[in-house]
Amino acid sequence: MRTGKRLLVVILCAVFLAPLVPIQAHEPQQLPMAAIPAAYEPGQILVKFRPEASAAARGSRLAALGLSTLQELGDLDISLLAVPAGQEQGTMERLRQDPLVEFAEPNYRVEIPQIVPSALPVFTRPDWAQLGVSSTITCTQLYTPVIPNDPWWIYQWNLPKICLPEAWSATTGATDVVIAILSSGIEPHHPDLQSKIWANPGETPCNGLDDDGNGFVDDVHGWNFVSNTNVLTDDLAIGTQVAGVAAAATNNGIGIAGVSWGAKILPIRVYGVDHGSISDIILGLNYAANLRQSWQMPMVVLVLGEVATYVEAYQVAVSDAYAKGCLLIANAGDRNYPCPGYTNWLAAAEPVIAVSSTYENDRWAEPINQCGSYVDLCAPGQYVPTTVPMALGSYGAWTGTVLAAAHVAGLATLIWSVNPTYSAVDVDYLMKRAGTTVDLGIAGWDMYFGWGRIDAAKAVQKAVHYLRLLPNDHRLTFVFDATLNVTLTQTIINLGTSSPTWRAETNVPWLTISSPSEEQHTPSTILVSLNPNPLWQQPGYGVHGYGVYTAPITVTSTMSNSQNSPQIFMATAVYTEQIKTLVFPRLFYHYVNPADCGP
């Protein structure tokens, strides 16, 4: 009923106020509902028993039906079972009648997203360089906007559209935030991606061991659930394209810019050659959630693909990942189906953020774009320049809601960079309901644009700045030898935001504090130097000012709202006479066999 009323308003406006309706208010005509079949893997079903079912009871139920377990899906207590092909429905019905069974359902196939290349080779259209400025964009000004030096930046209309230069003036993205991409893998040697791939701190590469004890051997950079290996090469290009939009290496003088300069990419392969399965999606999601729980880094999980029916097992995995601290984002859908009438249940599950795509002029993108009650946000998704596998030319321009979802994932990491204490609930709220979007279409939420198109500058400004500094003990120590003419310096590091967002001050003459350079992005630093001359002339010490001196340094956020600010660092200066080094002769020797020394 709510949707119908909103549609009526659009129709009346179109008839009576056509000259006054701005282009961004466009919403496409609704078409009849479409019946979309949901295919599943033959000979496989998913079963979850109730918690009160003992191991013996579970085993007897499965044995009575002649069923065997193919795989346990992580720590979710969901089993992938083998059944005779053609008997899936009958077996599930019998299991559903068992009071100890919570659910039984097919292992549904997941359709690979359809990403469409631009009609002309990338960067050859004469109007490409004008896309970013061809429509009016009003952005919130934080500090001086940041323009990266990547050569294809002038063609990336999509990033100025969401006010990233303004957002980047506050943060370009911390390096300890991770984007897990459940897709087709990644091009590991791409010059704009190879430095951005997450490395598991608990794994030693190539030793053939499961060092971190998570059940995966040498999962240094992620896992391939299709072939059950750590080989993550992308032969479908989708994961590589999405990674480039979200977090390509930026300001490195090559290629393109990504939404987040700092965020790391965790590739998780869940697609085979022509489709994926919901069991692999669940495994990949559980894998990412457990890594997030183990290492406690902020994590965005991009779930890419489409399923045309509700899957209870997937909802269990989503709820588990959310409870473990992950923020989940998915593409609304890329099928050319009537709208509304088709729901992508990978995106419709709660609390996944579903993202539709828009053109450069803020029109809802047709025809491969889905709408419905599950859509939360929208972002640029048409003719977006991004990375592709090197065999395909390294860069290209593509269209799809997965690229729109990548923009939202990148924005989430910028918010987490500003405030790593935020929960996934906080980031979700800030992006959707805190007044940080550009409202398109019908006022308020609607089924095409959701709560609106993301605006990175608004979101970063609205985020509470949590000042996060190193060293952790907040102590700086200088030991100065009066006989040496050297400059002693110490560094205060801001991990999450850029140079204009903070300052340091002291009231003693023997410390000099540099202003952060405007060219210094995230992480940013302030240099503290010892100025020994005032110590030498210190009254009360006679001719020489030898001694130990301490003084506070006050570090403060300059953002409009902040937490953990101000902070006090204690600087200690030890001003001494010549430091002499004592050299002792070796008291003990050991015999070295010349044969051990080589030729």
Topology:
Elements: H1 2-16, E1 40-49, H2 55-64, E2 68-72, E3 79-82, H3 88-96, E4 101-110, E5 116-117, H4 158-161, H5 164-168, E6 178-183, E7 223-224, H6 238-247, E8 264-269, E9 276-277, H7 278-295, E10 299-303, H8 312-323, E11 327-331, H9 345-348, E12 353-358, E13 375-380, E14 384-387, E15 395-399, H10 401-418, H11 424-432, E16 437-438, E17 453-454, H12 456-462, E18 465-466, E19 469-470, E20 475-481, E21 489-494, E22 502-505, E23 511-513, E24 524-530, H13 533-536, E25 547-557, E26 562-563, E27 567-576
Parallel strand pairs: 6-8, 6-10, 7-8, 10-11, 11-12, 12-13, 18-26, 20-27
Antiparallel strand pairs: 1-3, 1-4, 2-3, 4-9, 5-15, 14-15, 16-17, 19-21, 21-24, 22-25, 23-24, 25-27
Helix pairs in contact: 6-10, 7-8
| Alpha carbon gyration radius | 29 Å
CATH architecture of the largest domain: 3-Layer(aba) Sandwich
Strand elements, count: 27
CATH domain class of the largest domain? Alpha Beta
State the share of residues found in helices, binned by percent.
10-25%
Strand content bin: 15-25%
Low-confidence stretches: 1-35, 119-135
**Sequence of strands across the biggest β-sheet:** 7-8-6-10-11-12-13
Question: Oligomeric status of the shown chains?
Answer: single chain
N-C termini distance: 87 Å
Q: Domains counted in the coordinates: how many? A: 3
Mean pLDDT: 87
CATH names the topology of the largest domain as Rossmann fold
Count every helix, treating DSSP H or I runs of 4 or more residues as helices.
Answer: 13
Major beta-sheet overview: 7 strands, parallel
